[in-house]
UniProtKB/TrEMBL annotation, chain A:
Protein name: Multicomponent Na+:H+ antiporter subunit C
Transmembrane segments: 6-28, 35-55, 75-99
Entry-linked PANTHER family: ANTIPORTER SUBUNIT MNHC2-RELATED
The species this protein was found in: Actinoalloteichus caeruleus DSM 43889
Gene3D superfamilies xref list: 1.10.287.3510
One Pfam match: Oxidored_q2
Keywords: Cell membrane, Membrane, Transmembrane, Transmembrane helix
Basic and acidic residues bias spans: 116-128, 136-153
Topological relation to the membrane, as annotated: Multi-pass membrane protein
Chain residue ranges for the region called Disordered: 116-153
Major localisation: membrane
From TrEMBL, chain B:
Domain NADH:quinone oxidoreductase/Mrp antiporter transmembrane: start-end pairs: 125-402
Subcellular localization, as worded in the UniProt entry: Cell membrane; Membrane
Domain NADH-Ubiquinone oxidoreductase (complex I) chain 5 N-terminal: 65-103
The organism of origin for this protein: Actinoalloteichus caeruleus DSM 43889
Region ranges (Disordered): 763-782
Protein name as it appears in the record: Multicomponent Na+:H+ antiporter subunit A
Location, primary (coarse class): membrane
Lineage: Bacteria, Bacillati, Actinomycetota, Actinomycetes, Pseudonocardiales
Keywords (A to Z) from UniProt: Antiport, Cell membrane, Ion transport, Membrane, Transmembrane, Transmembrane helix, Transport
Membrane-protein topology: Multi-pass membrane protein
Sequence ranges of Basic and acidic residues compositional bias: 772-782
Amino acid sequence: MNTVNVTVNLTMALTIGGLYAVGFYLLLQRSLMRIIIGIVIVGHAANMFLQLAGGPPGRSPIVGVSPAEEMTDPLPQAMALTAIVITFALTTFLLALAYRSSVLLGHDEVRDDVEDRRIRRQQQRVDEREEPDEPGADRKFEFGTDNDKEATR
Amino acid sequence: MLLLVTAHLVLAALLPTVSRWLGRWAFAVGAILPAVSLGWALTSLTEVLAGGTVDESVAWAPVLGLTFTLRLDILSLLMIFLVSGVGVLILCYCVYYFKPDAQSNSRTSALLVAFAGAMLGLVLADDLFTLYIFWELTTVCSFLLVGQDGNTKQQRRSSIQALLVTVLGGLSMLLGFVLLGEQAGTYRISEIVASPPAAGALTSTALVLILLGAFTKSAQVPFHTWLPGAMVAPTPVSAYLHAASMVKAGVYLVARLSPAFSDHTPWWPLIATLGIWTMLIGGYRALFERDLKTLLAYGTVSQLGFLMVLMGAGSHTVAMAGATMLIAHGLFKSTLFLVVGIIDHQAGTRNIDELSGIRRRFPVLTVIGAIGALSMAGIPPLFGFLGKEAAFEGFLESGTTGDLVVLVGLVLGSALTAAYSFRFLWGAFGTKPGVEDSSAPKPSLGLMVPAAVPAALTLLLGVVASLFNALATTYAEPYPAGDHPYYLALWHGFSLPLLLSAVVVASGVGLHLARDRVVRLGGWLPDFLQAQPGYERTVAGLDTVSYAVTGRFQAGSLPTYLAIILLTFVLVPGSAVLTGGSMPEELRLWDSAVQVPVAILVLTAAIAVTMAKRRMTAVILTGVVGYGIGAFFVLDGGPDLALAQFLVETLTLVAFVFVLRRLPSRFTQVESTRSPRWPKVAVSVAAGALVAVSALVFSGARQAPPEASEGFVEAAPEGAHANNVVNAILVDFRAFDTVGEISVLAVAATGVASLILATRRARRPSAAEETEGPRKSREVRK
């Protein structure tokens, strides 16, 4: 532990990268269950990342069992331990959300946000009315009135 | 000084409560502090005239080198006369101007006092950041005062335009300040002016950015249109903010920095061009206005251009003219605004076409207004005449071509100024054929006195010209004076400036007499010279861009959002890692050979998760990944970690199984038909690869042995009576972190419980309806 060892374990790095890729892919899905699984896997990978960045492996950090020079760094382990527990808390909360969603809606799919869709439609409408020669002629800039216009249309 | 500024802000916070007791007399309470400031400034007068300064500094964030630094010198003193002096008059005037029971009184009084404090801070600031903070505070006050309660479209539009334009300038100015401060090595204004940074591209950029701030604040072309728009504010507010004090902040900044930068390349040419252009455009537009207040606003625009030129020129005589005009303008413009306020208040209109016969009705008011307008036109023996004469003399002195061009511009601008001054007099007080005399009750003394005081000063300072001489000379001291330094006087003999003044007045009278023909022009300007359409086009363009950006990125779909975040992660930190990071010197394939089969197992299980069609399969495979990670921890030398991992993984599996009972056994397959799979795969693989690379780079970046951990290892047996260092860290050294962690667990547990209980409760009352919906959609899925 007293010397700085800059050799890095390639197998672990690749495993971390692979787990992150899988986790990201699952996060990009629409099924809430897949998204939760994605978060769990990214959480695992992050804990491994902590260990890899925390230095080379050694013997368990228990005084009296291993000499101090051969111990692994205990701090990343303490951090990862905390992270594991918090990931668990987050997972159960998300599972409860998925449960509620399935009971109320009958599915656990993440649908598109209606409000955001409305903005997109409005933008398309602006795009259609191209009139770069006379801006402000019929579309005077005004705060707070767009919603009203939208409502009356 | 800092105490005075803070007192203003505190009083502003208290005024809404005070006005509940005192009604509109709250304005009078507000006037106390500006009066105190004015008194303090007057007591410091002798010291400042002797060349001394009053300094005060409070460390704000010493680690970052940030201090609130205030400094009173001659320029600050002149500005305080305007800020606090006019402030007292305006606040007293407000008492009689606003209705006793107006709802807005508490708001307006508080904002006016807050503004007075911010403005006082602005003119006293000796630190670029302090200046910037007060600068933006005045902008915010102006926005709130112009917008009032925002009931009308015009109020909203004008206040937003004023805010957008001045904040744009303010931000660019901040950028300029940072550049300038870094170039100079200090953010103290007095130090920068004493030893300015060398000329160069960076300094020039900084100066242009700072000037942009000054130009927007002081309503220079092409940013000037916000100022006439801001006239929707109540007249006392316009008189104070948009004539006497706030709009002079830009002029003040130029005056503050000119001793150091007047010979830097972009400074003077830029100021001279835009200043004269502003003076001409403002004067021209004022010739056509029918609303007295807007007429004055264009006049202010024009005069601000004039002041910019005088403050930026950097010669002794012109600087004297600048100081004189600064005060002269403050005095006559506040007089005129207050007079217009009285006319509006009594007659109910300020439209030139509707007013008639005011001169006969209010002779005293007419005299007051005439003094103001004639001082503006530059008629002796009024104060404005002194300033104008000094300006002409100053640009004649050197005789260079550039100065003569500027002089021609100033003479033209002054002629326009004289013309609209006469137009104002005629429009406000004159008797117009075919218009019936305005009937108006006599104004109260409380309205007349605040208007009469600056008019009296205008007359006094003009007649006794030597009164102001010492102030003007002290202000101009940084600029080298010639062998025969200029002095302010009504009579310098038959000289060229006098002739020019005569020409100015004569052409002003001529333009006014030919007003019918002039008005027929209708204020016509070629399109490319109009600033307002430019502003509207810019804002509409921003509007379109923001719609386009929001519409494209705010698509409403969670996968799209996450993909955008991941792509940003790959592109921004990714390029930094790839270009800036260095790979570790030595790569090892594995620490122990057992890691390889475990890695293969974990990765295979993970990939299988993505392909699983059944939820249960996916969950079990996730469990395999979790246990595999546990195995890694064992190999890595972390028994506690592995133990926790195995336990938590088991618990997670149990929780999953509870929820899976509620869900259909197969994943719904909607998404695969909706969009192709490969973009998601590509994005996730790219992001995963980047994580792998950064894992190598970060892990290889270790430079020192971990001292914190060594300390933990040493302290564990004695300090925590524990041999297991990880345990000692968790429950002893970093016990508070663990308390936080437990709270997270508690919060999550509460959340889970309430979600599940709420779901049960929601299902109970309308069981028939609720179950109908889910069943239907379930059938659709099948």
